[in-house]
Amino acid sequence: MKFTDGIWLVKEGYTIHTPKEIFDYKMKADSMEVFAPFKKIVTRGDTLNLGMMTTSIEAPQKDILKVTLTHHDGEEKKGPEFPVTKNKMALETTDEEEKIIIQSGHLKAELHKTDYKISFFGEDTLLTSSDVGGEGYIESAEGAFMRERLNLSVGENIYGLGERFTNFVKNGQTVDIWNKDGGTSSDQSYKNVPFFISNKGYGVFVNHPEHVSFEIGTEHVSKNQFSVAGETLEYYIIYGPTMASIIQKYTDIMGKPALPPAWSFGLWLSTSFCTDYDEKTVNRFIDGMAERDIPLEVFHFDCFWMKDFEWCNFEWDKRVFPNPEAMLKRLKEKGLKICVWINPYIAQKSPLFLEGKENGYFIKRQDGSVWQWDLWQGGQAIVDFTNPDAKAWYLSKLEALMDMGVDAFKTDFGERIPTDVTYFDGSDPEKMHNYYAYQYNEAVYELLERKKPGEAVVFARSATAGSQKFPVHWGGDCLSTYESMAESLRGGLSFMLSGFSFWSHDIGGFEEGATPDIYKRWTVWAFILP
After folding, report:
1. Is 293 marked active-site?
2. Residue 313 near residue 351 (C-beta atoms within 8 A)
3. Residue-level pLDDT at 513
C-alpha cells in the first residue's frame, strides 16, 4: 500500500508520523523496549499532545530477532495467530553513547539514539536498515496503518512471499498477502506467505495472518516496505547467511514440512471436466497406463465423483459409480492408492446443508444467518472450522470415505473466504481470510495421520504461513501453454523459498488440453520435482 506521492509528498488523505529520537528505553535480559516520540524533545512542553512509537525487540532463537512496533496498545487482541514458536532467549545488549546494540547469535541490531533508525548486521556485515523515517504510523479516513521500510541495496534481490506467478525476483512489485482463486496468470495467489528472502543473507517474516501489503522497490525504489492496518506491526528478521540456512531457521519457528509417504512421490492420474466419468472410463485410463509400461501410484477422483450441484455431499454419484466400495476394492487390487476431491463448501442442494445450518456448523453473517453465495456452487455455505463440533462433523464424512478405501484427499479451494462474517470462536474475520487455509488443511491432515500414521498426504491448493506442515501442494489451475508452464515454474520456485518442500502441478496444464509437444516438455519438468 502506498502512502506517499513520490518521495517528497504524502498522498492526500494520509498523515504519516515517524519516530525521531530515542527518549527512553528499558533493557531486560531477554528483551529491549524503546520509546521514540514523533518529534524531538527540546522543552518539557514538547512532551504534550504527542504520540510515540514503542519498539520492542526479542529473540526466539539464535540469529533471529523479533521486532514489534506499537503505537497504541489498547486494541483487543483477537485471533487467529500463526503458530510461531514462543521462545525468548537471552539477549546480548550494549548501551553506548550514540546507540544501543542488541545481539542474538550472529545477528545484531543497532538502534541509533539521536536520529532514530535501526540497522541490522550479520557477523558485522550490514544486511539492511530501517533509516530515519522508516518506521511509520499512518492516520487516514480508512483507519490507522503501521509500516516498516527496509533498505534495498545495489544488486539486492527479494524472493518468496508464497506461490507467486509474476517475475521470480520480486523487486518492482506490489505484493498483497491475500489469498485469491485467480488461476496462475495474474498477480493473485492461492498461497500467500508474508515471508521473503534477500540475496543479502537475511529473511523477514511479517507475523500477521491478515492482509499485509508489500511495496518492493515500488513506492520508493531503494526501499522494501510492508504495512498492515491497525496499531501494531510485528516482524522477524532472520540471518542466514545462506538462503538454505534462512529457510531452515524460519521453519525452526514456523514448523517443518512433514515427510509424505513414499507412494505419494509416484505418478498420480486424474480426470476432471474433460471426459465422461464412470468406472469404465477410469479403468480405461488406468489400464492404458499399464499397457504403455508407465508406472502409476495414485488414481485421483476429481469433482464429479459426487453428484453435480451437490458439492460437497461426500456421497458417490450412484448414477456413474453404483457400487463404489467394490470399485475401490478392484482398483486397490491393482496396487493403486485412491485420492478423492473435496472442498470446505456445502451447496444448498447437498443433503448436508440443512444439517449444517440447523447445528450452526457454517460461517455466519453478522445478523446470525448463514453466509451464502452462488460462486462455484449454488447457495453454498462454508464450514466453520473454529467450531469443534463443525470440524468433527466434517471429518466424520471423510472418515467414512477412508473406511471405504480412500487414502488421500485433494483439499481444493479455501481461498474465497469472506470478511463480512462472524466465527464460532469470535475470530477476527480479516485474519481468518488467509488463515482459513491453514485450519482447513490442518484438520484434514490430522485425520489422515490419525487414521493412517505415517501415510498422511493431502493435495492442497490454498496455503499460508505454516501450511508447509501439511504437504503436499499443487499449483492450481494453469493453462496448457508454454507461457503457463513458465508461470507455474515461477510460482513453484517462489513457494519453495517460502518454507515449503513439496509442490507439484498439473502435467500439461489444466485448461484447454495440451498439444503433444507441451505435454512431453511438461512431463520432463514434472519428473525432476519431488
Report:
1. no
2. yes
3. 83
